[in-house]
Amino acid sequence: MSVQIFISVLFGTLFLLLFIFRIVEPAYILLFNKPLYIHWYLYSKKLKSSQRQILVNDFPFYNRLSDKRKKYFEHRINEFIAKYELIAKETVITEQMQMLIAGTFVMLTFGMRNYLVNVFNKIIIYPSSYFSTVNKACHKGEFNPKMKAIVFSWDDFLLGHLTSNDNVNLGLHEFSHVLHFHGLKSNDSSAIIFFDEFNEVIKYYNDPILNNELTQKKYFRLYAYENQFEFLSVILEHFFETPRIFKTNHPELYAHISRMINFKEENLK
Fold first, then answer.
1. Rounded to the nearest 10 degrees, what angle do helices 170-185 and 189-201 cross at?
2. What's the pLDDT tens digit per position in 16-38?
3. Mean pLDDT score of the chain, rounded to an integer?
4. Is the CB of residue 152 less than 8 Å from the CB of residue 126?
5. Is the dihedral of CA 140, 246, 80, 260 positive or negative?
6. What's the pLDDT score for residue 4?
7. How far is CA 55 from CA 11, 29, 42, 158, in A?
8. pTM for the whole thing?
């Protein structure tokens, strides 16, 4: 077989597989409400030993992953760092900042195949709470879609990360806003699933009966009821920080969140 024929057959086969995939996956999503596959990397990028040690020391989620999933996690952190710019304001970017910020986003999106989103391209870090020029007030964090920027107070980000049982996590909160906005704008498989389940989740905010059930149990902090955006972000904070309590108090809502980000507790060790 000549080289030209081989190349033609190869490209023809790839085109056929892609065509089949575009038909099969939508049907698979309709049946199982999750992507056909999540992790497949031609070459997995590894972290440096110093970077990995930060995860071992300060990222419990990483330590609960199997060895295979740890490789996926590390690869995604590398991809995150390569795609998004970290900008220091009145501070210096450290390796710990890189690992914990990237790790938080990767944790939140670990069940999604299309996890690198385009609704932001930079993360601005202040040492502590800062004055926002957008609404002329002091902030701990924010997501600005027009500027494609996320802003964090590092003190508050770190406090939220290291305090893992108070259901307040600045990183998860702002990155949840990112996923919400991405779900509104994109049509990739993970975004479609996210938005479909969000439509079920938001019923707990809009429906008086369901909303009353939530407020009576007082599990979610009051800030959840500010608007639908904050509702989702606060719920995702609870989902990762106190999942067993969440599942016990609101099993159906917990199931919607689990499907929304394609995450199951049993995937951890």
1. 110
2. 556 556 677 777 777 777 887 89
3. 90
4. yes
5. negative
6. 67
7. 41, 33, 24, 13
8. 0.91
